[in-house]
Amino acid sequence: MNRSNVFFLVIVLLVTGNILMSQVADGWEFSKSRNGIDIFTSKSETSDFKAFMARMTITGTIESFVAVLQDIDGLPDWGYNIKSSRLLVQAGDTIQIYWAEASVPYPFSNRDGVYRNTFRWDRQSRQLKVDINLLPDYIEVKENLVRVKGNGDWLVKTMTNGRLDITFRMEVDPGGGIPAWLVNTFIEDTPYVTMVNIREMINKTKYQGKRFGFIR
């Protein structure tokens, strides 16, 4: 390995180390890194269920990313264990309210949630923030389903080389008597699978060439 390659490797390690240390300092504990996806967890201040955060850098445009998130019919293609989904409200191109059902292994009942996504674009920093708020009382709960509560967000930074730095965070209370220790055991699965699927979906033809009025 020549000197330039060694120098580059050192810089990468230093930058990565600084990112991981900053996340730990913010109360996030590094959990694992796999296939370019870093997973962190954090203890909740309001429940025994841990929160999760995932980060990755991928090739794609901010418009394609928004197009994936706003395709509610396509949510089962990339959302972790999502069985079905339905758009309830579309307010311009910055607010969506939708319902989704998630499959849960026996003997527990499937979960459902009503999600409000609010899209905010910072033109100066060229960053996208998507606030995710669950609305547990928005519609009546269907029979044999358990309504979940929680909140989260997406933070997407555009980079100069046509890549996106994506962070996904969620804190969810699944309700219905599922032990917190059991949920926490598999807490890494949701963000990891979600990020892997997003990375695959963003470059599909149907999400290319999209335009949104709030992104300028």
Helix content: 10-25%
Shape: globular
- Mean pLDDT, nearest integer? 89
Helix and strand pattern: HEEEHEEEEEEEHH
* First-residue to last-residue Cα separation: 43 Å
Report strand %.
Answer: 35-45%
Overall radius of gyration: 18 Å
**Largest sheet at a glance?**
10 strands, mixed
Q: In terms of structural class, how would the helical and strand content be classed? A: alpha+beta
Task: Say how many strands there are.
Answer: 10
| Low-pLDDT ranges | 4-23
Number of helices: 4
What this model shows, in words?
The protein has about 220 residues and is of the alpha+beta class. Helix content is about 25%, strand content about 40%. It has helices spanning about 5-25, 60-70, 180-185, 190-200, and strands at about 30-35, 35-40, 50-60, 80-90, 95-100, 110-120, 125-135, 145, 150-160, 165-175. Strands 1, 2, 3, 4, 5, 6, 7, 8, 9 and 10 form a 10-stranded mixed sheet that branches. β4 (about 80-90) and β5 (about 95-100) form a beta hairpin. The chain is globular and about 45 Å long. About 25% of the residues are buried. Mean pLDDT is about 90; it is low at about 5-25.
Key features of this structure:
216 residues; 4 helices; alpha+beta
Describe this structure in a few short sentences:
The protein has 4 helices and 10 strands; from the N terminus they run H-E-E-E-H-E-E-E-E-E-E-E-H-H.
Blueprint (SSEs and pairs):
Elements: H1 3-25, E1 29-34, E2 37-42, E3 51-59, H2 62-70, E4 82-91, E5 95-102, E6 111-122, E7 127-134, E8 146-147, E9 149-158, E10 163-173, H3 180-185, H4 189-201
Parallel strand pairs: 6-8
Antiparallel strand pairs: 1-2, 2-3, 3-10, 4-5, 5-6, 6-7, 7-9, 9-10
